[in-house]
Batch of 2 targets.
Target 1
Amino acid sequence: MPYFDAASSAPLHPVARQALLAALDEGWADPARLYREGRRARLLLDAAREAAAEAVGCRPDELTFTSSGTRALHDGIAGALAGRRRAGRHLVVSAVEHSAVLHAAAAHEAGGGTVSEVPVDSTGRIAPGGYAAALRDAPGPTALAALQSANHEVGTRQPVAEAAAECAEAGVPLLVDAAQSLAWGAVAGDWSLLTASAHKWGGPSGVGLLAVRKGVRFAAHGPADERESGRAPGFENIPAVVAAAASLRAVREESAAEAERLRELVDRIRTRVPRLIPDVEVVGDPERRLPHLVTFSCLYVDGETLLHELDRAGFSVSSGSSCTSSTLTPSHVLRAMGVLSEGNVRVSLPLGTLEEDVERFLGLLPDVVRRVRGQLGAPEQDEEVAARSAAPAAVSGPGGEEREDELVVDSLGKLCPIPVIELAKVIGDVPVGGLVTVLADDEAARLDIPAWCAMRGHEYVGERPADRGTAYRVRRRA
Amino acid sequence: MPYFDAASSAPLHPVARQALLAALDEGWADPARLYREGRRARLLLDAAREAAAEAVGCRPDELTFTSSGTRALHDGIAGALAGRRRAGRHLVVSAVEHSAVLHAAAAHEAGGGTVSEVPVDSTGRIAPGGYAAALRDAPGPTALAALQSANHEVGTRQPVAEAAAECAEAGVPLLVDAAQSLAWGAVAGDWSLLTASAHKWGGPSGVGLLAVRKGVRFAAHGPADERESGRAPGFENIPAVVAAAASLRAVREESAAEAERLRELVDRIRTRVPRLIPDVEVVGDPERRLPHLVTFSCLYVDGETLLHELDRAGFSVSSGSSCTSSTLTPSHVLRAMGVLSEGNVRVSLPLGTLEEDVERFLGLLPDVVRRVRGQLGAPEQDEEVAARSAAPAAVSGPGGEEREDELVVDSLGKLCPIPVIELAKVIGDVPVGGLVTVLADDEAARLDIPAWCAMRGHEYVGERPADRGTAYRVRRRA
């Protein structure tokens, strides 16, 4: 039963388990106490901090253990913004940050601050000079910039060192969300703050990292608390912290050996999925990416049904954003990239993934996709082609009658991918140059109709508000 | 090597350990995911919530798992205050709440709110009607009141049900900090919010509870996050949550059987320590108290040295407040009670404490205290008595000479208990009715000089600012 969702959470690493067990007996007491149980706990905590700091590439006194990666991001961003409140109230983030960053940004805006987003290209990568431009164009002095080391949905690595240099040039600290990449190595470049999450690398739940370089202004928000340098309130979770630090070291060693092997397995998926299955778009940067992660989208497929079918076949994968399945809105990452979100599948291989499991996945995927498409009544590729070839550049139909050169498809109340499927079914009914207007109220249509046009070579004319939902207009070009 | 500091953190309970181990394998995945690993994690989380809710006495959908008891308090108080922001900006707390509550109150004040403290008597208990009075006298409408179920330093139980009724009468929600008592039973009374911390009952670190009754207005603060009903951001720590819930049930069963036994062991300490050791004050309510906790203060003793000596003798105890050892300010709890803070020792017995260990503790304590007093040059009790009896009601000294009826002792720069020791050494040098002024800059003197006067039957005249430090004035009465 292969688990292919390591980017969401990795199973507990054996070293983490072992360290946790040992620390349960030695690390339960309050490390602030002076008696032997407290001193033992303190020793464990100090050793864990040293080990984790070494892996992060910072000094132990720069590193705080938080209760999760999300807390590290929320509190790291709030603390850096508060620390530089007098310098400015502007925050720069990329458009493809984790939702925890975007939510922290929204909270900053709600508190009177301003935020700007650095755009990405269709691979999900920020442009060179993107942060310099954002800092230049900011509505006021910038307090903080944030950038992920690699994207959690599509695996694209960001040019962190370049962005850090651009920020340093402007005197602005850069916070790097290293949640997805820390298992694969330290983050290069002159970052100011860094966050990570232990359960992503096979450490236990309940541990995040927040590194704040000496000299970076930081003001912890919320009620005072003396633990973890005042940056993470609450009793220290020492057994989990010990397990997190020990497993990070172990995983780093293994990942150095595994990177090439998993990169090759991912390349197989990247190459073969589009060959095996019609109308699939593999997204993300093919080279500058995490070794173990690949994302693709399947036209005319409902992501949730696809995940369900793959689960029944024994494969655990996820659908792009962790937001996707719970909020039912299309992934903000795919939207920022301007790519198809329909039938989105993220495969992220844990260390030790068997080649034969990847082959098995590739073997059954085409059938699963075909079945889901069949259930949804998606047009067979042949049908579409037939429809297209039956409609030449003239306005006369197959029967020689005059055909409408403008059609309206009412997909109101229908969830994606239905609006796109209905569009595909009628595109052949208008002549080349003719217009199809799709009325839809599913937010994903905004992303998927333009993406479908790009895949099919039609012109996406644009959208406008309709009495209900939105009218998306498409001009037939092929 | 007996560990007598269960109120600070309890060793991991065997049931917690077992549950944690099992859940490490089953509960590492994201419970929001739809695949089997996610569904398994979700099942574990749901079952843990049901078990914990039953132990708390609330509905499962009223219970949130936080990353610590401190977070539960910080976020519970902030959320309740924000939810009732339009109703009022006033917060009522008792003077002896945990520092996490007082820090949250300080943060509320810093944000423009107001706070009032309900006083306690010398046993650490709030008066009947105390919350009603505080609500009546509040400077504006009250948003929230908070009260601990039992005090963490002296073990005194608070009349929570009465306070809850007083709050309900005024339409104000009451938050109960049940950190110290939850292992001993559910909190009675009509509370609105309740918090607790798993490592206090032998559960793992990293788990707090926050219960919010349906109908209580609550607005989570900080960035949005969809986990734990939006009340506790970050990836759920399911193995720890499972262990916390399982051990709470187990501990409840054991504590019902252990309560009487530990209560009797604590009574031995309460009774015999003052008999075995001169100048000791046992503090806290002798009856309405936690079964396992007792606190006493030793005149002329430095708490930290005493703890150190007890640690060397194999006993792990703590000194009153968790603040005490790290911030070196006297415990706010003992201050609010108006009792001696000098040489403060808190003994809190874990479940299963052996009678013979308590006897051993009682056996060696007198020697340890005597040694510490000797090191500090404290007056022997006999000396003091001799000094007193050598100074009759007249102003003439033993040699028949006129004696000064006012003396000044300069204890500036000296830490407690030195100022009190120096006071005790000279009190016999003034006649009955004479005055001794102690100049001191250690904050503990403010508490310990009046407490010493009460213990010795002298009159504490008062304090006034001096050029350096504070001048404390004492009139000899015996």
Target 2
Amino acid sequence: MDPYKTLREETYEANCQLPRLGLVLFTFGNVSAVDRDRAVFGIKPSGVPYENLHPQDIVIMDYDARVVDGTMRPSSDTKTHALLYKSWENIGGITHTHSTYAVAWAQAGLDIPIFGTTHADHTHQPIPCASVLTDAMIEGDYEHETGHQIMNCFQDKGLSNQEMEMILLQNHGPFTWGKDAAKSVYNAAVLEEIARMAFLTLQINPNTHPLKDSLRLKHYERKHGKNAYYGQGC
Amino acid sequence: MDPYKTLREETYEANCQLPRLGLVLFTFGNVSAVDRDRAVFGIKPSGVPYENLHPQDIVIMDYDARVVDGTMRPSSDTKTHALLYKSWENIGGITHTHSTYAVAWAQAGLDIPIFGTTHADHTHQPIPCASVLTDAMIEGDYEHETGHQIMNCFQDKGLSNQEMEMILLQNHGPFTWGKDAAKSVYNAAVLEEIARMAFLTLQINPNTHPLKDSLRLKHYERKHGKNAYYGQGC
Amino acid sequence: MDPYKTLREETYEANCQLPRLGLVLFTFGNVSAVDRDRAVFGIKPSGVPYENLHPQDIVIMDYDARVVDGTMRPSSDTKTHALLYKSWENIGGITHTHSTYAVAWAQAGLDIPIFGTTHADHTHQPIPCASVLTDAMIEGDYEHETGHQIMNCFQDKGLSNQEMEMILLQNHGPFTWGKDAAKSVYNAAVLEEIARMAFLTLQINPNTHPLKDSLRLKHYERKHGKNAYYGQGC
Amino acid sequence: MDPYKTLREETYEANCQLPRLGLVLFTFGNVSAVDRDRAVFGIKPSGVPYENLHPQDIVIMDYDARVVDGTMRPSSDTKTHALLYKSWENIGGITHTHSTYAVAWAQAGLDIPIFGTTHADHTHQPIPCASVLTDAMIEGDYEHETGHQIMNCFQDKGLSNQEMEMILLQNHGPFTWGKDAAKSVYNAAVLEEIARMAFLTLQINPNTHPLKDSLRLKHYERKHGKNAYYGQGC
């Protein structure tokens, strides 16, 4: 009996959502899910096509990115996931993709401005684009340093990982997270759509204005505030 | 026996069209249908994914946005629907989405110009973009005021809700309506396509001219005028 | 026994290709097929959704746009088809759509330049955009005059309807034709792709040059010339 | 018993991937696979729709583009494939498509800059765009000269066909290759996505910078270098 069966299944299911949501070409993405009680997380094995993936292929890792269980090599981005789980104890799942529009903004090196309520329904700030890593970081422990760059960006901008569950890494692509793996995948799809809408908005009117404060906060609060009235309250 | 069974089924079917037509990501949209005899409307419950939706989940509301029947919390946009049904007695269904190209125009804060016959087949005016609500409206009864903003826009521009069955709300997205819920969904899909074509048109030729009056009216009249010859006359 | 059974089936099958090829939203398109021996053509009935269409719904018309057989009202664009069949005796099928990128070029009011071999494989000229009809034409016998406008454009530009099987009508959309209805639908899909590629090309490099003559003619001739070596020669 | 059965099946399977990956409209593409022991390659017959293709239709050719086995006419691009197999002994499969975004860059006549890690995961250089052939080349043995133009471009730019498995031909479209036919198709899909991302990047920020050297090499090396740690090492 596999003690990580549930964690593997959660991780497997969340990974399978990526191609269904149109967020990945071939193997360009990975999702992990954490088990806080055991202090381990499950992650997709590296380079395995989604259609060949099975729950038992999920590799179980600790927060220092050491393999705890599993026979396959974990995602090459595993150390980024590990550092985020170690540093941010409130998150339950992480998704990394190379989805088209989010990557385009990352390659453009720009934060995604907040132009509308679709964005504000999910976060009341622009989506940050963390600067490209320094040469020393890239030539050092690259994927671990990628995790540091994410946290540095959040610290510099005074962002909360609960109010902002997504980031772009310049010249690379998006990372998203959430209370569990499924929520991190949801956020990856939302980010892709926000990125697409913002691109189109600027093509139509390069001089348009960001959402004003009252509407920005209203939409965020009606969904996430203490008097939220969106959803079924469960 | 549920007295609202037919209304719930109409509302349910119309909501299910949204993902089929590619107009919604996750739960980003809602459709309502009215029963004028009973003075109630059915609307999608808030935050329920379309694939989990059942006819019995539809919430029955009166025109003052009070729940008449149903156990779930209605769409957070319910008060907008309610005010439109109360004010515009000739409409039978309302759709709200965050479809990509319509949102992009709303975020750009611009009316959609009338560039061709695809547009004129459905309305002979530009698609209006209502200004963003004032802070007082946003901080007041927000969704109710959203309904007022729609009606204010139609009044200011002298538009008829029968000749123009769609609107954009600046920084938010589209609302569409029609003689029944199915027609409001049809209009939501037409608006998205018109928005996409207008975006592409301006990318190809920013100096192109709007449709001239004779052609604008010809296409509208052949489909909607008293001598219309489009369709099977039923 | 229906004497037009074969013609109706050909027309029906060709119409059904439009939604499969992503060329139509709802009922925004129509295909006709001609029977030269009987001097009649079959055409889609007006306003009928493709999923509800049956072969027996196809309306049989003569070249003066009079109904010969059938109980439904024919496409509102029927007179355009009729004039083309009457004037161009070598064509066997006609397709009209409001496909997105072709409409965008029509709304931009521009010919589609010939930028590459995908275009030259099908025609060695830019795709013409016929000017918008005069007010007199629009207020007269509009759909009949639309056919005249197509032929006027071909005459003015010295184009052959065999070497160029497609046209845009300014502020409206594309018409395509071919040796039979299936070929006219094929051309509608090719035009949409050429229109999309040309749009993207100009976005990437507004100063790019059209295809040079030698390559333009080479690709056209290897597929359509007397020494053509593309295809299986049947 | 067909001595080319395995080669035909490999070629057939790889061709069938093109429509599944959205890389071709109608017959706009072809894949070949080589058998180095027999010094022959299999290639798609010309002008045959993918849905009508059978393994036995694959035409077997030698490196001088002479038919060795098969009853159908081979792809009109066969001489380009033949020259590449003859000149580059390390490649096992070749794909040619007219995929939309790759063609748009080819029609724009520009190399695709390296803007991000999606690109660097596959090659550490911009994707080259070979100049349009001279009139003499076009009017001579055109498809053979197309192969020469590809090799000239690689020689001029000092590129290795193992580090760069893709090219654009100006005003035409992409060719890709790899260790086998499946890898060449994979590369065709990767190129299309890189082309799309680069287009969007420049639309969002025309002044963005290419990927810096350290990150460009890091991503390429972690996947392809001697200490690569991407994938399962098999």
